[in-house]
Amino acid sequence: MRIVLAALATTLGLVAGLVPSAAASGTIRVALVEDARVVELRGVAIEVNELGGCCTAGGAWRTDVVRAVANGQGVEIDGRRASGFRLTSERPIQLNGREYPAALEVLKNGDGLAVVNELPLEDYLVGVVRAEAGERWPREMLRAQAIVARTYAAYHRVLNAPKAYHILASTVHQGYVGHVPSSSPVWDAVRDTSRRVLLWDGDLFPAFYHAASGGYTEDPRTVFAAGNIPRLKAIRDKFSTGAPNYAWSLDLRLADLSQILRRNGVDVGTVTAVEIAERTPSLRVSALTVHGTRGRARLRGNDFRRMVGYETLKSTLFAVAVDGETARFAGRGFGHGVGMSQWGAKAMAERGYRAEKILEYYYPGMTLGSLDDLERALLRPPTVVPASRGSVE
Fold first, then answer.
1. 223: Cβ contacts below 8 Å, ≥ 6 apart
2. Is the pTM for the entire model greater than 0.85?
3. CB–CB of 8/158 below 8 Å?
4. Do 148 and 339 meet the contact criterion of CB atoms below 8 Å apart?
5. Strands (E) located in 265-391
6. pLDDT bucket at 373, cuts 50 / 70 / 90
7. Dihedral sign, CA of 346, 350, 353, 356?
């Protein structure tokens, strides 16, 4: 997979005319908010600077409260308009009840605003590990989580290098809680694995992970529509059987399901039946047919789950039957099933497995490497020519 290395060369400014960006400086840009009309940020002595070609004079100023509004083609704060504003402070800055280490940028994004936290990659990972695994889980699980999250973040930093931000602080990508006290054990897990990443054929890859596999992991190529996904072997996961969502059930009224489908552009009238059409080798639903009073529609299992809601329909590893006016689902696991099961990794750590063994189990065929080694490799001739990049859903 030379795609990522080529893109990383571009990101590091090794192609003539390019300026070194976040990867070269060791930082990452994380979108905390994507489409807000108004955002309010609080802190202590926040310094506000206009970004690029400001529309009005005034320079920088300090305040404890920043209220930003999307206005025309830019952002407005305290009557001043610009393409965006950069906020810095010696103390964390609060947004939506959470504290984030500076710097933060408020940018125009479509019709709304994006708030982007730019910070060192390793500091970002501390906020990710705390969000995704917490502080009380076993040390080796936290170490494994740190390596996986670093790989995933580094990959997206390369993939989205030309964009205003690299990754989202949400379940779309990975959770991120912002500022974490220095006393948290999560810092030790990140420091102990500093710069270590997973590699596939010598390159970074999107090291997906999920909450609980339900007993079987999934081949990423059956879930994500991208040409650069590795041929990661699905496995029978004996360590996830004790997860809270190993088995689950859902009762969904047919009238509610009909409305859900209509809101997503699928109108079959009132749903009368749901039929599984295809399953993956790990028994997840790859396609299903919804029958209704006005016709029928064939849907991808992942699209159906997205429509119903990822938190509601916890996975595509399910069976379904219509009982009167209700569709009854019985399933296993939580998440897409690709890569590491977090609850499975916890169980392995509790049984004495080290992080490296946990990663070998969930990513068969991968190797452990270093971001430093990848960057040094790019400094050696021949020059790497950027290639087109695939997208990751």
1. 208, 302, 336, 337, 338
2. yes
3. yes
4. yes
5. 271-279, 285-292, 295-300, 318-323, 326-332, 340-341, 367-370
6. confident
7. positive
